[in-house]
Structure formats: structure tokens, C-alpha cells
Design a protein that fits this description.
alpha/beta; two-stranded antiparallel ribbon; 13 strands; 44% helix; 11% strand; binds adenosine-5'-triphosphate; binds magnesium ion
Length: 522
């Protein structure tokens, strides 16, 4: 400090203040750094958890062993073990059947036979539903069921829309029936279904008429993309009755065969319906006028993209051999819009059903792969419902495949389509659920009555792994493919460069054909 400088004391004071402030900042920075390091060390400790070794974790209340016990392995019968592990040890169905794969909970073989399960009162209906996301393994399961049941003499009937059953057909010695423009195959979707001895003549006629009307209404609905009106329905009913000779007054004892061209031709023959029209209070001109669209829609079935395919006037025995190990109608050659695909699919199904529902027919698997496309149409749902009801009578197991149940809940909640779809679902005795996306889970849980745990599990199921809901039981089953089946079920081999049908050796083909032929003759 300079005694002669008057500012010197003030400057000294400033200097002291500045140095004090610097010291505070440094100390504060040190404190903050220490706190950060302590927090980081704490986080690492928490993440690593308590220190542990062979005797368990260190620390208070960690349940640490004084020394490790060495116990001999315990062996017990499953009857005892199931009381110890009541939710994991399942007694199984105890019903014989075709091998499907591995029950993932019990590690036992999972067998399935809808007829045996029905006889054992495990299921109350032989019809089943398979749902799952794209590529989850639905068709592979259906294909394997076809092959495994064919080997024990149970035939199958399938409509192949995607041309994915051709290799399998070759494997089981079946020639698919190919439908398409110029291929010369003509089916009759309105062919007569034989009367079952358990049906009275009146019941049989009523069910046949309901079936045919549902198909005709469905075709019009699909073509016009709207539900059919009451007047159109009346015109259709009168044309059908007229074609089958069942109009009042002119009623025959025998039903005349019905066909699409016959119904189309009768839709304009109003002179034969004079009494019926008078009774309904509608003139022939009004009926013709208001049913024009429906008439034209049906007409397009006989003359349009599907001309020459579904206009046969006979039954379908000429083309469909039901004594063969199976029948496949292949629709791949029909290339048109979605409506035409749906129409051809239901017509082919109907033609097949008419032929296979014979009182003397063997039990049979009938597949409705890609069935989700018909779920929007009330008449087609009604047709399926009728088919489901008859299944028990004729010993048929119907198998429906769809992506998710939201396909079934089309239209407003509580709409007729939604109600019918729920009814159809209730008519299924067994359901196989493959992987489902999150958005589909709530509805799947509600409609199938799943628990939260089961619902959660559906999200994680791997390819080929499905939850089988049979009666009151649920089984998580990994469907296992044999080396012969694997190439035959491939639908993505081109994408993944995997094995294809060319990888099956001649010996394996012979083995498969032998098994099916032995089954068919047994
Ligand atoms: N159990 C399985 N084990 C191994 N691979 C399987 C199994 N099931 C299916 N796959 C494979 O997954 C692919 C798709 O299967 P699949 O065609 O059966 O699915 P999808 O559910 O019918 O599909 P989409 O909804 O498109 O019809 C096939 O190529 C098949 O090889
Ligand atoms: Mg499929």
C-alpha cells in the first residue's frame, strides 16, 4: 500500500474481495463435482445390484446360504407332480388323434382329432377357426392336417385361391380342378344337397332353399357392394321357386334341379308369378323395375368374367371325385377384381359342399382358407352358418382361417354382420390362435373369453406356435413340420431362399403317396 496514494486503501479492499470471491467459486465447483461423482457411483451400484457369489447376495436380508445344499434329483409320477404344479402340469386331453406338435407347457406330444374330441365331449362342435397374423403359420397347419388325416383315410375338400395347395396336391396324389376362362370346367353352385335321413322332406326343402337364397343374395351383395333390397329378394325367391317348380299351384313333388342360368332366366318370367305378385300387392312392372340391378348382377355371373364356369345345370359329380383322397378347386386362373374372386370362391365352395354332403359320405375336412374375405357379407355369413349346422349331420369338420377377429366385426358394433359373425364363432368347437397384433388383442380376448395372461401371450407367439382352445382348456402348441412337409408348406421360400418342393427326394415323395394311398384304402 502506498501511504501517499489516497486511493490505495480502496484498491486494497477491492483486491481482498476479488480473491475471496474466486475462492468461493472454486470451492463451490469442487462441491458440485464431488456430488456428481457420488451420484454416479450410486447409480452404478444400484444397477449392478448387491454383490453376489455362489452362496447368494451380500447384504442384510439377502437370504444368503450358510453352505450350498446338494440334493438328489426327485422323481415322481405326473399324477403327483400335477398337484405340486397345478397350473403348469396339464393332464392332457387323453384323446387319440393326429400328431400336431409339442405342447410347450407339458412338453408332451399334442394330438388332435375333431371327431374323437366330439365323441369324448371335449368339444361340442366339429367346426374350428384358425386365426393369426400374416405369415404366422395358419395355412401350414391346415396343410399338415390335410396330409396327416389323409394318411389315416380322412379325405379333404379345399378351395385354393392363392395357388398354394398345388404342391401338396401332388404330394397326396390329387389333381386339382382348375377353374378359369376357357378351361372347360363348369360347376353348379346351386346343385342339390342330398337329404339326410335325419331330415324330414319339409326340413330338407327349407334348408336347401335357404342355402340357395343365401348364396344368390350373397353374390348380388358382393357384385353391387350393397345389401339386397326387399323387392330384389322377392324377385329372387320367386325366380328360384319358379326354376325348381315350387311355385304355389304348380308345386311338384320332386324339386327340379336349380342352376344360375335357370334362376336368371326365371327372373323375368313374371307371368308365372301372377298369384304371388297379387298376394304381395306389387305389379310385375314395378318388381322388374326395382330388381333390375340384382338381375343384371346375377346375369354377369353367367356372361361376365365368370362366364362358362358356374353355369352348369347338372350336379358336380362329373368334375369332383369324392372318392379320391381329396378335392382341390384351384381358382388361380381367375384374374379379376376382388368381387369376382369372392364370388368365384363362394360358388366353388357351394358346388363342393353340395357334392360332399351325402348321407353315406366319409368324415371329411373342409377348408375355408382366406375366409375373412366373406365376413363382410351377411348372406354369405348365413350360408356359412347353415353349413356349420349341417356339418355335424354329415360328419364334416369345417376349418375356417382368418387373420384376426376384427375382420369378423365389420360394420357397426351390434350390426347384423357382427351378430352373425359372433354366432358363427360360437358355433366353432375349437379355435387355434396364432400371433396377434396389439390392436386385435382386446377383441380377441372378449370374443374368445381369454384371460389377461393368455391375451398377453398371443403377442409373443412365434411362427407355427399357436394357442389351442379346446373345450375349457388352452394349450400352447408348437406345430412341428416333418422334412417332407416342410417344403410343401413353404409360402415364402422365394423371399428367404429356403427349401422348396424341388428339395423333396423321390423316396420321400413315394413315402408320402404310399401313406395317403394306404390311408384312403383303409
Ligand atoms: N410350424 C412351422 N415351423 C416352421 N416354419 C413354419 C411353420 N409354420 C409356418 N412356417 C413357415 O412360415 C411361412 C408362412 O406360413 P403360412 O403360409 O402358413 O402363413 P399364413 O398364416 O397362412 O399366412 P397368410 O396370412 O399370408 O396366409 C411358410 O413359408 C412356412 O414355411
Ligand atoms: Mg395362408
Amino acid at each position: 500500500m502506498n501511504p501517499r496514494d489516497p486511493d490505495s486503501p480502496r484498491r486494497l479492499l477491492d483486491e481482498i474481495r476479488r480473491r475471496a470471491a474466486d475462492q468461493d467459486t472454486t470451492r463451490a465447483a469442487d462441491r458440485a463435482d464431488r456430488a456428481r461423482r457420488t451420484a454416479e457411483a450410486g447409480r452404478l451400484r444400484r444397477e449392478a445390484g448387491p454383490r453376489r457369489d455362489r452362496r447368494g447376495a451380500h447384504g442384510a436380508a439377502a437370504g444368503r446360504l450358510a453352505h450350498r445344499m446338494r440334493l438328489p434329483a426327485h422323481t415322481a409320477a405326473t399324477s403327483v407332480l400335477k398337484t405340486w404344479y397345478p397350473w403348469t402340469m396339464d393332464p392332457g386331453l387323453g384323446v387319440p388323434g393326429a400328431y400336431v406338435g409339442l405342447d410347450l407347457y407339458s412338453r408332451a406330444s399334442f394330438l388332435f382329432d375333431p371327431w374323437e374330441l366330439y365323441r369324448s365331449n371335449v368339444i361340442t362342435s366339429p367346426n374350428g377357426l384358425v386365426i393369426g397374423e400374416i405369415g404366422s403359420g395358419k395355412s401350414s397347419l391346415l396343410k399338415c392336417l390335410i396330409m396327416r388325416f389323409a394318411a389315416v383315410g380322412i379325405p379333404f375338400s379345399w378351395v385354393d385361391v392363392k395357388d398354394e395347395y398345388t404342391d401338396l396336391a401332388a404330394g397326396v396324389g390329387v389333381e386339382p380342378l382348375r377353374l378359369g376362362p376357357g378351361l372347360g370346367v363348369r360347376l353348379n353352385p346351386l346343385a342339390t344337397v342330398a337329404r339326410h335321413p335325419a331330415q324330414s322332406v319339409v326340413e330338407w326343402r327349407a334348408s336347401l332353399k335357404a342355402r340357395r337364397l343365401a348364396l344368390l343374395e350373397g353374390l348380388i351383395h358382393v357384385r353391387l357392394d350393397r345389401p339386397i333390397s326387399m323387392t330384389e329378394r322377392t324377385a329372387l325367391e320367386l325366380a328360384l321357386d319358379s326354376a325348381t317348380g315350387q311355385l304355389r299351384g304348380g308345386a311338384r313333388d320332386e324339386l327340379a334341379p336349380a342352376s344360375l342360368p335357370a334362376v336368371v332366366a326365371n327372373m323375368t318370367r313374371t307371368d308365372t308369378w301372377a298369384d304371388e305378385l297379387r298376394e304381395r300387392g306389387i305389379t310385375a312392372a314395378a318388381l322388374l323395375d326395382e330388381s333390375r340391378d340384382a338381375r343384371l348382377a346375377l346375369h354377369s355371373m353367367v356372361t361376365g368374367a365368370l362366364a362358362g364356369m358356374f353355369d352348369s345345370q347338372e350336379d358336380n359329380a362329373r368334375y369332383l371325385d369324392f372318392d379320391a383322397p381329396g378335392t382341390i378347386v384351384n381358382l388361380h386362373a381367375i384374374r379379376a377384381d376382388q368381387a369376382v374372386t369372392v364370388m368365384s370362391m363362394v360358388c366353388a365352395q357351394s358346388a363342393m359342399e353340395a357334392e360332399l354332403m351325402r348321407p353315406d359320405a366319409r368324415p371329411r375336412l373342409v377348408g375355408y382358407d382366406e375366409s375373412w374375405v366373406v365376413m363382410r357379407y351377411v348372406p354369405l355369413l348365413l350360408r356359412l352358418q347353415e353349413q356349420f349346422k349341417l356339418a355335424r349331420l354329415f360328419g364334416i369338420c369345417n376349418l375356417l382361417a382368418a387373420h384376426r377377429l376384427t375382420d369378423w366385426e365389420t360394420g357397426a358394433a351390434g350390426s347384423q354382420a357382427a351378430r352373425l359373425a359372433r354366432g358363427l364363432l360360437e358355433d366353432t368347437g375349437f379355435r387355434v390362435v396364432y400371433r396377434q397384433v396389439d390392436a386385435a388383442l382386446p377383441l380377441t380376448r372378449d370374443l374368445l373369453g381369454l384371460t389377461d395372461v393368455q391375451t398377453h401371450l398371443l403377442r409373443w407367439l412365434r411362427k407355427g406356435c399357436g394357442m389351442w382352445l379346446l373345450g375349457t382348456g388352452a394349450y400352447v402348441v408348437q406345430h412341428l413340420l416333418s422334412s417332407i412337409e416342410h417344403p410343401l408348406v413353404q409360402t415364402d421360400s422365394r423371399m428367404r431362399g429356403r427349401v422348396g418342393v424341388d428339395d423333396i427326394s423321390d423316396e420321400e415323395w413315394d413315402l408320402l403317396l404310399d401313406a395317403v394311398q394306404t390311408g384312403a384304402s383303409s
